[in-house]
Amino acid sequence: MPTSDEAGRRDAADPLATLREYFRLPADTVYLDGNSLGALAAHIPERLSRVLTREWGDTLIGAWTEHDWWSAPLRVGDRVGRLIGASPGQVTVGESTSVQLFNALAGAARLRPGRDVILTDTGHFPTDRYLADSVARLLGMRVIAVPAAAAATAVAQWSGQVAVVALPAVDYRTGELWDVAATTAAAHAAGAVTVWDLCHAAGAVPLALDDDEVDIAVGCTYKYLGGGPGAPAFVYLARRHHDGYDPPLTGWHGHAAPFAMEPEFRPADGISRTRIGTPHVLSLLALDSALDVFDKADLAEVRAKSLALGDFFLDCVADLVSEDGFEVVTPRAHRRRGSQVALRHPAAYEMITALLERNVIGDMRPPDLLRFGFNALYVSFRDVYRAAGELRDIVRSGCYRDERFAVRRLIT
Ligand SMILES: *Cc1c(COP(=O)(O)O)cnc(C)c1O
């Protein structure tokens, strides 16, 4: 079992330890839910305040040009692109993740006319599945869902019929990391295109979308990227598809000449055709500021630290796993793990709620998973040690069985 001294030594040797100072985190709180809502970078309020008063307040409509709000979806898109292995001009930011997913799935299907299958993951996030089902109904297609691990085999089996392979890069529950390169290659061998969901990967796991020849990818910006609640999503469209991409949601910001106010849609050249309508400028610029932190951090170091935190956590809870009925559902192997660790226990809800009372914030997914996210930008080894210690205390004391934890169950 690791000791508290060891946690301290690991923190002292951590090259990213100083990054925590860039965040506003409540004192005495261990935040292991940055995979759901990233923490606030402390400089964002001032930037937003300037945007509100100077840009909006003083400049009014002129801010679209004077402060170049107009290009913000492209500018911020390129900043996200650097974190996901996309060279400039292939990413825009705007709309919600669900809207972008809908658009991407329908747009991908249009790239493969005559094929009628959307292949997806049985464990995919609900919104991804609901949207795939709806796109399939709209376009006269059908959805085939298989476990993500079997996607490469399945696409070969339905070769010639699969238009779109829609998968997460990291499973939101188990934290498993899938092989983007190999699955994309399998999809291409079967003539399909890929729509990767990067919600639990962007900003945590180095990605190489260009090198892996990914077609389309979508991701949230309020998880590891720290853009804030409801921050707009990003969409990556590989350059080779730009000319042939027929955007399903034909909003005027994606028009070739938006201010000509033409009666018919003509898609813009390049990545701009993935734009839809007026973006949420305040959220977009909050995200722009949030990304400043990544300019100070090497994503390879972020990844290495996140894995080390996960390993340290698993070492700290090894006794609970062997003696107290927990199961580790996240693969231990680094190449198969994202940036969170999930434990299975029938009393997951009660335990997470009991942890909350002790200022250790993790979360749970039904029916029985405890999720702990390790955002390397602000989580320390001491945090992990404390979280594991509190969990042990809650389990060994049995206090999680107290009624006050049961009443907060989110589902029945
Ligand atoms: C977080 C998450 C979403 C969220 O979609 P919203 O439209 O932002 O609510 C979608 N898909 C996956 C895989 C996620 O992890």
UniProtKB/TrEMBL annotation:
Gene3D superfamilies linked to this entry: Aspartate Aminotransferase, domain 1, Type I PLP-dependent aspartate aminotransferase-like (Major domain)
Q: In which pathway does it act?
A: Cofactor biosynthesis; NAD(+) biosynthesis; quinolinate from L-kynurenine: step 2/3; Amino-acid degradation; L-kynurenine degradation; L-alanine and anthranilate from L-kynurenine: step 1/1
Q: Which residues bind pyridoxal 5'-phosphate?
A: T97, S98, F125, P126, T127, D128, D197, H200, Y222, W252, T278
Q: Name one GO molecular function term.
A: pyridoxal phosphate binding
| Cofactor(s) in the UniProt record | pyridoxal 5'-phosphate
GO annotation (BP), single: quinolinate biosynthetic process
Hydrolase among keywords: yes
Which InterPro entries does the protein's record reference?
Kynureninase, PyrdxlP-dep_Trfase, PyrdxlP-dep_Trfase_major, PyrdxlP-dep_Trfase_small
Q: Out of the domains of life, which is the source?
A: Bacteria
Gene Ontology CC terms, in alphabetical order: cytoplasm
Show the Pfam families listed in the entry: KYNU_C
Report the catalytic activity: 3-hydroxy-L-kynurenine + H2O = 3-hydroxyanthranilate + L-alanine + H(+); L-kynurenine + H2O = anthranilate + L-alanine + H(+)
Q: How does it assemble?
A: Homodimer.
The record's similarity note reads:
Belongs to the kynureninase family.
PANTHER family given in the database record: KYNURENINASE
The family database entries (NCBIfam families) matched by this protein are listed as: kynureninase
This protein's name = Kynureninase
Native species: Nocardia wallacei
Source organism phylogeny: Bacteria, Bacillati, Actinomycetota, Actinomycetes, Mycobacteriales
Gene name, per UniProt, is: kynU
